[in-house]
Write a structure and sequence with these properties.
Distance between the termini of chain B: 30 Å
Strand order of the largest sheet of chain A: 1-2-3-4-5
Strand content of chain A: 5-15%
Number of strands of chain B: 9
Structural class of chain A: alpha+beta
Largest sheet of chain B: 5 strands, antiparallel
Order of helices and strands of chain B: HEEEHHEHHHEEEHEEHHH
Strand content of chain B: 15-25%
Radius of gyration of chain A: 20 Å
Oligomer: heterodimer
Number of helices of chain A: 6
Distance between the termini of chain A: 63 Å
């Protein structure tokens, strides 16, 4: 687990995204790998989770308790799960709606997973792992990138997309919250001014 | 259009049209809060004799609060003693007798279009009268009037010696509605700090917990989705007839106004998200190499 902390507020965003970017670029070295379990099948190993030796170490990059990225690499695919900051009820609803909106269009998004990951893959047994209870919560949205994607698309552009997504999502949610508050204010004022004697 | 219009648009436009060109018609339409209307020419050979009927869910309660007096006052002879079958109140309109083209005609048609508003004004007018009586007596509490104007939602009106309290109980059917509603209602409560709105009625709201005035009632809906909004109207809000009328018109539509704006915000959020998603799509498409672009799927 990589903790990007020690700095306060928005200063942490740049190193956080830089860490995610470099980790992702390193993890996106994927190659074709036929399934060892079923003949003539070719599946994303991180989703199947059957052969332990092709799964690489999962990594969590966290900005603070409420914002994390989980990267689970394997030989032919990687899964990236994001937990988006949701400070209050409104943000939780907006985030939920937005991620649901995107996940319903997962086919168009190619690299998006239809369901977010709740609990990541546990690395090999035999090593005593301390499961941090704060980390055991689920994630809001997940991406699945396979070797097919890296073959047909430019790798650094995929990474660009993910990083841009992370930036934009936070911005979008706070903009929607602001516009909701502004609208509420206008609505209340118009109604009450009409009562003016 | 931020504020809802109190008059019924269909009545207004149909009557304005037919006043200049009478013809046979039979229209059934609805308004907010499950109110049904029917505008017909019962005798097809006499297109100038129109009949307007309205059906309201809470008619019996309105009768108790004096709606018949109010309607007689507003519409006089046009009010029919026996309403049409299936409706609660009927007005006879004779197009030959309405005022000539111009302001007078507009006012007349407007007053017909305000039929629903006039009917629902009954408990409020009674509340204002009671308040004046109590003010003279300097103490006491009026009757707690309940108006079950919608399936699970009620308006309560109670007069005291120095104010009239109006309580709306409203149900939010979805969790999103509830959260949005909370944001909106919090702004209503906070809006009073603005200097221009100092004289507006005081607004309070609670979720699930009914306010003190109605806590003793049976049959209250108890669940997370229920919210209660209390308006405290002071005597200055109904000091003279004009102000009182405008207060009543305004406060009747509060629940519809609130839910209308909640739905509008949800629609706005949706269009924003749709836009943002298509932006992301564009960024992702930049990642595709030339060969992959060929078999692109259409984006809905």
């Amino acid at each position: 687990m990589v903790r990007v902390s020690g700095l306060h507020g928005s200063n942490v965003l740049r190193p956080y995204l830089a860490a995610v970017r470099s980790t992702l670029t390193a993890a996106l070295t994927l190659e074709d790998f036929s399934s060892q379990v079923v003949e003539r099948h070719n599946k994303p190993e991180v989703e199947v989770g059957a052969s332990k030796e092709v799964l690489l170490n999962p990594l969590i990059i966290s900005r603070n308790e409420n914002e994390r990225v989980l990267i689970e690499p394997s030989i032919n695919s990687i899964r990236l799960s994001i937990k988006i900051k949701q400070a209050d009820e409104i943000e939780r609803i907006l985030c939920h709606k937005f991620t649901r909106f995107m996940m319903q269009r997962a086919e168009n998004f190619v690299v998006l997973r239809r369901k977010p990951v709740k609990v990541g893959i546990q690395p090999s047994l035999g090593v005593l792992r301390f499961i941090d209870p704060r980390v055991a919560q689920g994630y809001d949205i997940s991406f699945l990138i396979t070797n097919n994607h890296t073959d047909t698309m430019l790798k650094h552009k995929i990474v660009d997309f993910i990083i841009q997504f992370m930036e934009e999502v936070d911005k979008e949610i706070s903009e929607m919250k602001l516009s909701l508050n502004a609208r509420a204010r206008v609505v209340a004022e118009s109604y009450l001014t009409a009562f003016n004697v | 259009m931020i504020l809802l219009e109190p008059h019924n648009h269909i009545i207004q436009t149909t009557l304005a049209e037919k006043a200049s060109q009478p013809s046979a018609l039979d229209v059934q339409f609805v308004d907010f809060d499950g109110v049904r209307f029917r505008l017909t020419t019962p005798d097809r050979k006499v297109p100038t004799a129109l009949v307007l009927s309205m059906s309201i869910r809470c008619w019996d309660e309105l009768v108790r609060y004096g709606v018949n007096d109010i309607l007689k006052r507003e519409y006089g002879a046009a009010l029919r003693a026996e309403p049409e079958f299936g409706y609660n109140v009927t007005l006879d309109i004779n197009l030959e007798q309405i005022p000539p083209e111009g302001d007078e005609r507009d006012t007349y048609i407007k007053s017909l279009a305000l039929l629903k508003r006039n009917a629902l004004a009954a408990p409020f007018e009674l509340g204002f009268q009671t308040q004046k009586q109590l003010e003279a007596a300097a103490s006491g509490q009026g009757e707690l009037m309940a108006l079950h104007y919608r399936d699970e939602e009620v308006i309560y009106v109670q007069a005291s010696s120095d104010r009239v309290t109006v309580i709306f109980s409203t149900v939010f059917r979805e969790e999103t509605d509830r959260v949005f509603g909370k944001v909106f209602l919090q702004e209503f409560v906070d809006a009073r700090r603005l200097p221009t709105i100092q004289s507006a009625p005081q607004v309070l709201y609670t979720t699930r917990e009914p306010p003190l005035e109605i806590r003793h009632l049976q049959g209250l809906n108890d669940s997370e989705d229920v919210g209660y909004v209390t308006f405290v109207l002071f005597p200055r809000h109904f000091a003279n007839a004009d102000v009182a009328n405008s207060t009543i018109t305004h406060i009747q539509l509060f629940r519809d106004y609130l839910h209308y704006h909640i739905k509008c915000s949800k629609a706005y959020m949706h269009s924003r998200m749709r836009y943002r998603v298509s932006e992301f799509q564009k960024v992702l498409n930049r990642a595709k190499t030339e060969a992959a672009v060929v078999d692109r799927k259409t984006v809905s």
